[in-house]
Amino acid sequence: MKKINRIRNRKKVVVLLMALSLFTSYCLSTTTVSATPKQLQNELVESTKTVTLNDEPLESRVGGITYSYGTGPLYGKSSDYTVYKNTVSNPNLPLTKEIGSYSLTALGILLGKESTPAGIAATCVQTVYDKFYGTKTKGLSYKTKIYTHKSYSTGNTPSGYCEKQVTTWYSQKNYTGTSVTTIQFKNGYLY
Asked: How high is the pLDDT of residue 3?
């Protein structure tokens, strides 16, 4: 009977600590289960900053989403993403110099920062760079059509958030000049 009560108390302590951790912005290690409720209560009363055994920030593990951009979806196949969500466009993405003067990294940072949705896969940067290298353009424009999974139109799939972004890049402002199309996936991982 004593052993059953200890197990129940440990479960209550873990739930209590998890609830309190939301207010302290720290995550708890599962090793806290080995402490007695009295020890934990004393520690919680002394300082909310010492509630942890693991000082990793809570935001990196609970309630946060980290996005990455790649050529494949987090869930399903590329052909499953057929539900049109919206179009995002920019008629004037200015460049301070010709594309050939940028390194791939610098161009990727520029396109990822300036384009909306904010983020771009490395393969897409390479495609844009290769297509427009040698042109005298000092500005780009783009239109991005966003699609979600046919069975999960909100973008929230069983594996996390995922959307397909089909972008047509133009070598001149106002959607003119030579064009190239890139396809990437915005994958959101929940922590």
From this structure: 52
Beta carbons within 10 angstroms of residue 62's beta carbon: 14
Distance CA 87, CA 166 (A): 9
pLDDT (0 to 100) of residue 140: 93
* The pair of three-digit structure tokens given for residue 3, joined into one six-digit string: 């052993």
- Contact by Cβ (8 Å): 166, 181: yes
- Residue type present at position 82: T
Yes or no: say if 145 and 166 are a contact pair by the CB < 8 Å rule. Answer: yes
For the beta carbon of residue 2, count every other beta carbon within 10 angstroms: 6
CB contact set of 156 (below 8 Å; sequence gap of 6+): none
pLDDT of residue 174: 96
How far is the C-alpha of 23 from the C-alpha of 40, rounded, in Å?
A: 16
| pLDDT confidence bin for 115, thresholds 50/70/90 | low
Query: Is the per-residue pLDDT at 48 higher than 50?
Result: no
Position 189 confidence tier, pLDDT thresholds 50, 70, 90: confident
Q: Which amino acid is at 162?
A: C
Q: Amino acid identity, residue 128?
A: V
Query: pTM for the whole thing?
Result: 0.65
Among 46, 144, 137, residue whose Cα is nearest residue 98: 137
**Are 154 and 86 spatial neighbours (Cβ–Cβ below 8 Å)?**
no
Tell me if 39 sits within 8 A of 46, measured CB to CB: no
- Tokens matching residue 116: 């909306």
